[in-house]
Design brief:
Layout: H1 3-6, H2 19-24, H3 40-44, H4 56-65, H5 68-72, H6 85-89, H7 96-109, H8 115-127, H9 135-143, H10 154-163, H11 166-171
Bound molecules: iron/sulfur cluster (2 copies).
The site of one iron/sulfur cluster has 14 residues, from helix 6 and helix 7.
Length: 179
């Protein structure tokens, strides 16, 4: 969901009143309802320091309000660096970073995640590396007398990704999120 779409006025039909209770039963987001919107998580978040578009407090509020589709399709959900500063600082013991993880997992289950992760999955399945090693770098290693890079174990990674259903989810046609 684009930044502009995320700022559209909220319609009553968008609200899923059960969403917050569903989240409260999931590991990591049990304390979601304790958030009283003090904003400490946002003011301490290193990512929020660099972009006005990312506000963990806002993500928590959207989840509390039951804006399920909006929050799961939000581009900004994927900006969290999982540093856990917010979790350490929250006066209400809301595990903010874990709530974001739960939301990401729900979004990924629907195939809603940035194209960059799909590309990484493709690369991992092909070569065992998260991104294609540029030929130039391979050559540079040779000229400097360095040994070739170890071969990635794509087969083992494929098994792991299958275990968490990531490959199936990557194939789903979820609404495109950020690149
Ligand atoms: S720090 Fe905790 S209570 Fe304050 S807005 Fe963030 S999640 Fe809510
Ligand atoms: S875990 Fe995510 S939301 Fe929390 S402070 Fe770090 S980057 Fe910000």
């Amino acid at each position: 969901m684009s930044e502009a779409a995320a700022k559209e006025p909220i319609r009553a039909s968008e609200i899923d009143p059960k969403f917050k209770y569903e989240l409260s039963k999931m590991h990591g987001s049990e304390k979601l309802l304790k958030c009283f919107q003090c904003g400490t998580c946002t003011s301490d978040c290193p990512v929020a320091r660099y972009t006005d578009n990312y506000r963990p407090r806002q993500i928590i509020r959207m989840a509390q309000l039951g804006l399920k589709e909006r929050v799961l399709k939000s581009d900004t959900l994927w900006l969290c660096a999982a540093c856990f500063t917010c979790t350490d600082r929250c006066p209400q013991d809301v595990e903010v970073a874990s709530v974001i993880r739960v939301l990401r997992n729900l979004a990924a289950d629907r195939g809603c995640f940035p194209q960059v992760f799909r590309d990484q999955v493709g690369s991992v399945l092909e070569s065992g590396y998260a991104y294609k090693i540029p030929e130039l770098r391979v050559k540079k290693r040779e000229t400097q007398g360095l040994p070739p890079l170890p071969k990635g174990n794509a087969e083992s990674l494929r098994k792991s990704l299958k275990g968490v259903k990531f490959i199936e989810n990557a194939d789903k046609k979820g609404e495109q999120t950020a690149k």
